[in-house]
Specification:
The chain has 285 residues and is mainly alpha-helical. The protein is 81% helix and 0% strand. It has a domain at 84-281: MetI-like (MetI-like fold).
Length: 285
């Protein structure tokens, strides 16, 4: 009578292979996690900043990352940094919204008529290469020392990037998709909303992202040059004042706030919008 063989025999080589497979699977999951990769990269940059600042040992040139974080927390507790941030974001929202609305109107005119297309292409070729901050002196003459001057340069920063990308996206919508919309009897605003905008959305989203980036850096630069408006000051003015007072950690705290807000908008707003539209529809941006 033969002895019954056990169902499972422990083999060291097999167990080691299974462990390696699990390790490779774990590494693969970590490698596929974009959020984790970016977080680790940011931590590495912060570490390099901290080490280099300590080696340099000159807080007036480059304060340590830890000193910058302490200065940022102190400014937030005192309310100075949140107040400056809210003021800057309010101006940014106003200028960005007006710029997008004007771009939509200009693009609609360009899509409807050949004259509008020629007008958009001509105006874009003229004004798109012109730095928005260069218009600030004229804006101050035309609109005075107020928010209107800053909003004017923000509109210029947003308008041409959004209009140009949107118009290019409309022109690249396939003829087949256009014919489908016409066969369903779509005309006017319904045709634009259901056919042109979804078909051109990758280009539209690109224009919105570029316009946002242009507006954000233009606003900070305008505040650095323009200063406070109506007794208030934004992030740019906060940085400028601390530089004059040689409060360099506070200067870097303001710069870090600008960077963090840019990362926040890019990863939470535009990435989320892209996942729910372009990626979900199977389109490439």
């Amino acid at each position: 009578m033969s002895e019954a063989r056990p169902e499972y025999i422990y083999e060291p080589e097999t167990a080691l292979t299974e462990i390696r497979v699990r390790e490779r699977s774990l590494v693969g999951k970590l490698a596929d996690n974009a959020t984790l990769r970016k977080t680790l990269l940011l931590l590495l940059i912060a570490l390099v900043w901290e080490v280099y600042a300590r080696v340099l040992d000159n807080a007036l040139v480059l304060p340590a990352f830890s000193s910058t974080v302490v200065a940022m927390i102190s400014a937030m507790v005192s309310g100075e940094l949140p107040q400056a941030t809210i003021y800057t974001l309010t101006l940014l929202f106003k200028g960005y919204l007006v710029g997008v609305l004007i771009a939509a109107a200009l693009t609609a005119f360009a899509s409807a008529t050949r004259l509008g297309a020629d007008l958009l292409e001509t105006l874009t070729a003229m004004f798109n290469p012109l730095p928005s901050i260069a218009l600030l002196p004229l804006a101050m003459i035309w609109f005075g020392l107020g928010e209107a001057s800053v909003i004017f340069v923000l509109v210029h920063a947003v308008l041409w990037a959004v209009a140009l990308n949107t118009h290019s996206g409309f022109r690249e919508v396939s003829r087949t998709l256009r014919m489908v919309g016409q066969n369903y009897g779509l005309t006017g605003l319904r045709y634009v909303w259901r056919i042109l905008i979804p078909g051109a959305f990758p280009s539209i989203l690109t224009g919105l992202k570029i316009g946002w980036a242009f507006a954000w850096r233009t606003l900070i630069a305008a505040e650095l040059v323009f200063g406070s408006t109506s007794g208030s000051g934004g992030l740019g003015w906060y940085i400028f004042e601390r530089k004059n007072q040689l409060l360099i950690p506070e200067v870097f705290a303001g710069l870090l706030t600008v960077i963090l807000f840019g990362l926040l908008v890019e990863n939470l707003v535009f990435k989320t919008l892209e996942k729910r539209t372009v990626s979900r529809w199977g389109m490439s941006g």
